[in-house]
Amino acid sequence: MEYEEPLFFTVMQYADAAERDVVDMVSGNPDWGAPDGISEGLHDYADTGGEQFQYPPSAGLRELRERIAERRGVATERVIVTNGGGMANTLGMARALERFDGSEVLMADPVYPYYPGKAEMLGGVQRFVPVDDTGCLDAADVRAAASDETACIVVNTPNNPTGAVYREETMRELAAVAEDYDAMLVSDEVYDHFDFTGEFTSALALNSEHVVVTNSFSKTYAITGFRVGYVVLPARDAPAARTRNMLTNVATSRPAQAAVLEALRTTDASYHEANRERLRERVETFTAALDRAGAAYTTPEGAFYVLARFPDYPGTMANAKRLIDEAGVAGMPGEAFGAARSDWLRFALVSPRVDTAAERLAEYF
C-alpha cells in the first residue's frame, strides 16, 4: 500500500476550496470541548515561568508518567510520553523491527493508512490480512499469514475505520501469535474511551513480553492539537525506545503535558460517558439516513466512524470529491484504507452538523 501523500488533507483541502457549504466528516477532530482541567492546567503552567519553561525530560514529565503507569497498572519506567499517538506507534513498530529477525509488519485490511506508511518508512515489509465480517482481524487468519519473517502485528481497537472492538479472546490469541513467531503485537488503543460495548480489553491485560500498547489524549480529551500520547513497552524494550524518542523528537511539549496532567487529576467518568452518549445519538441519526438512502453500513461498537456503501457508488477519491461538490458532504474514500473496503466511504461523526450531513446524503442517494 503506497503512501505518497496524506489523503486526509487532500480531501479536507478539496472541501475547503469548494464553492458551496460542506459538512466536514473527514477528520477525527472531536467537536466537543475539552474538560476544564486542560485550560486550568495551561493557566497554572503559564504562571510558573523560569526553569519550568525549559526542556522537559525526554521520556515525559515524571508525574505524568507515574499517573499513566498507575492507571494502566504498569511500572513507570515502561511508559514514554510521546508527541501524540503517531510517535507512540512509530516507537512501538520501530522497536519490533529492531528487536526481532523478521521484517514483515502484519496489518488489517482495511487499515488506518498511517500504519503502512510507517512500516515502509521504518524499512518494514507490509503484509495485509482482510478483516472478518465484524470488522476485526480473525486470529486464525493472522496465524495463517504469520511466518518467521513476521516482526510486528499492528491492531487498533476500538478500530478506525471499521468501529470494531476486539474482545479479550481475540487479543489473547493475537498475542499468542506474536509470542509463537517471536514478534511484537502493537495495540493502538487511542479510542479506548469510546467503547460502546463495555467489552474492550487492553492488550496490557495480557501481561506479555511481546505486547506494546500505544495511546493518546488527543481524542480522549478533544485536544488533537496538543500532541500528547504515550507508549507502554516491555521493560527490556523501554531503554532503546527512550533513546529513539530522544534522537527523533527530543521531548514532548511541557505545557501540553502539564495540561493533560491536570485533566487526569480532575476529570471524572461523567465527561467520557457524556461523549459516548453524544456519539450513540449521532450514530442513530446518521444510520437512519443511510437506511433511507439504501446504503449498507457499519454500526460502530467503538470509536466514532461509520463506513457506508452506496449503490453503484464505489469509494474512490473521484467519488469522494463528487460527493463534496454535489451533496455538500465530505467523507474519506474507502480505497484510502486498502482494498477490502474500497467500495465504501468513511464518515467521522465528530461534527455538530451530523443531522445536516445525514439529510443531504438521504436526499442525494
Automatic annotation (TrEMBL):
Is the Protein transport keyword given for this protein? no
- Domain of life where this protein originates: Archaea
**What keywords sit in the KW lines?**
Aminotransferase, Pyridoxal phosphate, Transferase
Q: Does the keyword Transferase apply?
A: yes
Gene Ontology terms, MF aspect: pyridoxal phosphate binding; transaminase activity
- Which Enzyme Commission number(s) are listed? 2.6.1.-
Recorded hits in Gene3D superfamilies, A to Z, give: Type I PLP-dependent aspartate aminotransferase-like (Major domain)
Q: Which PROSITE patterns does the annotation name?
A: AA_TRANSFER_CLASS_1
Pfam families noted in UniProt: Aminotran_1_2 (PF00155)
According to its UniProt entry, one GO biological process term is: amino acid metabolic process
- Where in this chain does the entry annotate a coiled-coil region? none
Give the InterPro entries listed for this entry.
Answer: Aminotransferase_I/II_large, AspAT/PAT-like, NHTrfase_class1_PyrdxlP-BS, PyrdxlP-dep_Trfase, PyrdxlP-dep_Trfase_major
PANTHER family linked to this entry: ASPARTATE AMINOTRANSFERASE (PTHR46383)
Whom does it interact with, and what assembly results?
Homodimer.
Supply the name of the protein.
Aminotransferase
